[in-house]
Specification:
Oligomer: heterodimer
Largest interface: A-B, 29 and 44 residues
Shape of chain A: elongated
CATH topology of chain B: Amidase signature (AS) enzymes
Number of strands of chain A: 17
CATH class of chain B: Alpha Beta
Strand content of chain A: 15-25%
Radius of gyration of chain B: 21 Å
Number of strands of chain B: 11
Order of helices and strands of chain B: HHHEHEHEHEHEEHHEHEHHHHEHHEEH
Number of domains of chain A: 3
CATH architecture of chain B: Alpha-Beta Complex
Largest sheet of chain A: 10 strands, mixed
């Protein structure tokens, strides 16, 4: 029998705000333990929560970006459970009236080859709600320590419908969702810092069956590749279990990405009764049209929208757009260079090949780059005008990456300019020089490299001494190679 | 002299202080002396700090000398129920759970009292976590009724009521979730005022039931209640449930409103269980209003019979969640016998909470449980809406309601061992909390055995000025509030 997996993801995204969800103390990562606390975070007797407006802005914006409906009225609920990572022993969350309902995340599946666009799908969302993060426990042999710096950080939970069927789809979903959140400035989504966390609900069923099978919740998927590996592993585990005559039990499992195994954490019988009820300390959130409109105006164009526009507007190939659109800064960089240069594809090639390579080698991020779109645009123009030959241009690029000087300045400094002659003229002089010296041609062809120098004098003479020696050398070599 | 001083109203004391016929240090010394003389019998306080109080008083006198006095509460010794946070002072909720806890921050009302120049004097006893009607649930001791030391002062703010009645402070603050200010005020013969839900910030008040809790003053006169309200009321950005509204000068408003008013008598508040002496005293008060030209009208609040049940579902549900933070992990009592994290919870809470608190946590946990939520909590919220609607319907015809505050005068310590009998003490006060209304209890007579009786005036939402004026109209023609228990 053939089986189909059904996957739904619950993604927690920490919202990047200055202060915590329900109090003024700063939110942050990497601080000395228990320094980002105050009476509210520590749940001292008598304290009360107050909503963080910036966090509300962020979730509404996220909802608008992901095509969700924004509830005119949503409310806060208490999720009650005892655990030392929670100071109140309840978490303020949203149970039955979340801020965002519905929506979808557009994903792209791997194409048949690297340069071929894959299939696009819209993965529907159930809801997005806002809550507060909990503290962090560290366990030792005989004791546990808790750090409440993270406690109370605004946290968004994005719940998808059970609408994915492969680990690749889940991977594409997370990639796309993460890009959108980073694009919108909602979160940095650094999984190592816990800014994005993912749980997966996975079940299998025979192909053709429409009823859902028994689901297993997979936790601790703390990198995007662990999500893919963990889901693939769980699907295999479930199929193997069913095929060997077993059944799937509803449970929560923990995936160990390093070891590539999962273990059971708790069964359905041990599931919590969270005793949700409306938080009497907080008023409902009312979002009017003006508030929505203000945030709608802040919503950026998302990667796939940008890709479609780039392909249409700039006539650039998939290979370029599929690289640049995933990073908002890089996409903006490309677009500016494309506009300034008037040659989008050439600009794109410089960015995707040379700039990203140099950044990688130098271990820099784009914001640190001394090469700006104007540099790339000028370089494209110089090459296009024949002022710089390709090899010279490459040299200029490396130079400008380290100095930040404009290509024209560098090529002057290094004498790389083919000016004032145009390339066609230079090529003609070279052809004439080669044709006039059959002996040197024969010598060169037998491997005597220095024979090339015999052609240079006549070329320089024809150019009245203004030809770029490097350009002359390059052009001669190109022509000789063809003979 | 000293005992005379400690029974004066804030309004009277403010005149003496302003005229420099009295200093805050003298007044505070008198309060300390009075407290030391009677406290062994009344047991209203959990703790006090004479040195600190005298230092505050000296600072107040210095401000006055410098021409920087801050209004009528300047230099007045006030006591706080031990659920209201003061930075650097103990905050126990009369529970073993918080026996050694010192709060690092000020409640909003504390900040406002400090800003007004009041001398913060002592922490007042209560039923543990404000759960009870007698202070017998205090983990430390039972406060006595100053009028009869064998009787309870009422609760949960029994310490606040008894301290004021015994002259151990010139004003005290309490909190009222189901009658916890008005009931002890009635039993101790003082004015107790619970304003509309949302008028006074709850920030820094230990939560019992968040949607019902409200801070309010115990005072000797209605005028003092108005003076205090102007100091402690107002929107607070630290309390999302605090109401944004323009505040009148409540004291000035007292003189501007003379009625006559249309007053409603809710028939459901005069039925079975009402002590005849209480009924007679309240009836006499009603007659007085009639004489003042007020229109008296019988009204009906048909859902009154559901008040107690509704209250004990909503209040316990919220309490079960509010008290979850007392777990022995970060502060408060931690069991020495605990073996692991779960054990810390079980043992610390088993040892730290008293029987009534546990009973309510269990009840609240039950009504919120999966499968029971709709039948209990959700239904109770719907009934709560109906209860509020009853009051709003009545207010289409009348300006305020008159009722007894309690069914009986103060009962004997140990008399009500059955929790349900104890819950019935709040039968006339609970509806006001469920509806979020302002309610005030003022003395309206004494029983033959010399126990105070309280009249409850229930007002319309955020119309405190009107309510205070109605109460004042009665008080001005009577001298019940000028009688004091003889403790010496």
């Amino acid at each position: 029998m053939k089986y189909e997996a059904v996957i739904g993801l619950e993604v927690h995204v920490q919202i990047k705000t200055h202060s915590k969800m329900f109090t003024r103390v700063a939110a942050g990562y990497g601080h000395k333990p228990n320094t980002l606390t105050d009476p509210v975070v520590l749940a001292l007797p008598g304290v009360l929560p107050v909503m963080n407006k910036a966090a509300l802005d962020a979730i509404i914006k996220a909802g608008l970006m992901l095509n969700s409906g924004i509830a005119p009225v949503s409310k806060w609920d208490r999720k009650n459970y005892f655990y030392p990572d929670s100071t109140k022993n309840y978490q303020i969350s949203q149970y039955d009236q979340p801020i965002c309902l519905g929506g979808f995340v557009e994903i792209e599946l791997p194409g048949s080859a690297r340069n071929v666009m894959g299939e696009h799908k819209k993965i529907p969302l159930t809801r997005i709600h806002l809550e507060e993060d909990v503290g962090k426990l560290t366990h030792f042999a005989s004791e546990s320590l808790v750090d409440y710096n993270r406690a109370g950080t605004p946290l968004m939970e994005i719940v998808s419908e059970p609408a994915m069927h492969t680990a690749d789809e889940a991977f594409a979903y997370l990639t796309s969702l993460r890009a959108a959140m980073v694009y919108g400035g909602i979160s940095d989504c650094d999984m190592e810092k816990g800014q994005l966390r993912c749980d997966a609900n996975i079940s299998i069923r025979p192909v053709g069956e429409t009823k859902l099978g028994t689901k297993v919740e997979l936790k601790n998927l703390n990198s995007i590749s662990f999500v893919r590996d963990g889901i693939a592993h769980e699907i295999k585990r479930q199929i193997a279990a069913v095929e060997s005559g077993g059944t799937i039990v509803q449970e929560t499992r923990q995936y160990d990405g390093e070891a590539g195994v999962s273990t059971s954490m708790r069964s359905k019988e041990m599931a919590h009764d969270y005793r949700y009820f409306p938080d009497p300390d907080l008023m409902p959130v009312k979002v009017d049209d003006a508030w929505k409109a203000r945030l709608q105006a802040e919503c950026p164009e998302l990667p796939f929208e940008k890709q479609r526009r780039f392909i249409e507007q700039y006539q650039v190939p998939y290979t370029i757009t599929s690289v640049v659109v995933w990073d908002r800064e890089l996409a903006d960089f490309f677009e500016e260079a494309a506009k300034l240069s008037g040659k989008p594809q050439a600009a794109g090639n410089w960015i995707v090949n040379d700039l990203l390579r140099e950044l990688g080698t130098a271990k820099q991020v784009l914001a640190e780059s001394k090469v700006r779109p104007a540099h790339v645009a000028e370089l494209v123009k110089l090459v296009d005008a024949g002022t710089l030959l390709n090899n010279s241009a490459k040299e200029v690029f490396i130079d400008m990456f380290s100095t930040g000087e404009l290509p024209s300045v560098i090529s002057d400094r290094k004498g790389l300019k083919a000016a004032p002659t145009d390339l066609g003229e230079l090529e003609q002089w070279c052809r004439d020089a080669i044709a006039a010296n059959a002996k040197a041609l024969a010598e060169f062809k037998t491997g005597k490299d220095s024979a090339i120098n015999a052609f240079k004098g006549p070329v320089m003479k024809a150019a009245k001494g203004k030809a770029n020696p490097k350009a002359v050398d390059e052009t001669l070599r190109k022509l000789l190679a063809q003979m | 002299m000293s005992s005379d001083l400690t029974f004066k109203s804030i309004a009277e004391l403010a005149v003496l202080l302003e005229a420099k016929k009295l200093s805050s240090v003298e007044l505070t010394q008198a309060t300390i002396a009075r407290t030391k003389a009677v406290e062994a019998r009344v047991k209203a306080f959990n703790s006090f700090d004479e040195t600190d109080a005298l230092a505050q008083a000296a600072a107040s006198d210095a401000r006055r000398t410098a021409g920087q006095a801050r209004g009528p509460l300047e230099g007045i010794p006030v006591g706080l129920k031990d659920v209201i946070s003061v930075a650097g002072q103990p905050l126990t909720a009369s529970s073993k759970m918080l026996v050694n806890f010192v709060s690092p921050y000020d409640a909003t009302v504390t900040r406002k009292l400090k800003h007004a120049g009041a001398v913060l004097w002592g922490r007042l006893n209560l039923d543990e976590f404000a759960m009870g009607s007698s202070t017998e649930n205090s983990a430390f001791h039972t406060t006595r009724n100053p009028w009869d030391l064998t009787r309870v002062p009422g609760g949960s703010s029994g310490g606040s009521a008894a301290a004021l009645a015994a002259g151990e402070a010139s004003m005290t603050l309490g909190s009222d979730t189901g009658g916890s200010i008005r009931q002890p005020a009635a039993l101790c013969g003082v004015v107790g005022f619970k304003p509309s839900y949302g008028l006074i910030s709850r920030y820094g008040l230990i939560a019992f039931a968040s949607s019902l809790d409200q801070i309010g003053p115990f005072t000797r006169t209605v005028e003092d209640a108005a003076i205090t309200l102007s100091v402690i009321a107002g929107h607070d950005p630290l309390d999302s449930t605090s109401f944004k509204t323009e505040l009148p000068d409540y004291r000035a408003e007292l003189g501007r409103r003379n009625g006559p008013w249309r007053l409603g008598i809710p028939k459901e508040y005069f039925g079975e269980g009402l002590d005849p002496e209480v009924a007679a005293a309240v009836q006499a008060a009603v007659e007085h209003y009639k004489k003042l030209g007020c229109e008296i009208k019988e009204v009906s609040l048909p859902h009154t019979k559901y008040c107690l049940d509704t209250y004990y579902i909503i209040a316990t549900a919220e309490a079960s969640s509010n008290l979850a933070r007392y777990d022995g992990i970060r502060y408060g009592h931690r069991s020495k016998d605990a073996k692991d994290a779960i054990d810390i919870y079980f043992k610390s809470r088993a040892e730290g909470f008293g029987a009534e608190v546990k009973r309510r946590i269990i009840l609240g946990t039950y009504v919120l449980s999966s499968g029971y939520y709709d039948a209990y909590y959700l239904r109770a919220q719907k009934v709560r809406t109906l209860i509020r609607q009853d009051f709003l319907n009545a207010y289409k015809e009348v300006d305020a309601l008159l009722t007894p505050t309690t069914p009986t005068p103060a009962f004997k310590i140990g008399e009500k061992a059955d929790p349900l009998a104890m819950y019935l003490c709040d039968v006339y006060t609970i509806g006001v909390n469920l509806a979020g209304l302002p309610g005030l209890s003022l003395p309206c007579g004494f029983s033959k055995s010399g126990l105070p009786i309280g009249l409850q005036v229930i007002g319309q939402p955020f119309k405190e000025a009107e309510l205070l004026s109605i109460a004042r109209a009665y008080e001005q023609a009577h001298d019940w509030h000028l009688r004091h228990p003889n403790l010496l």
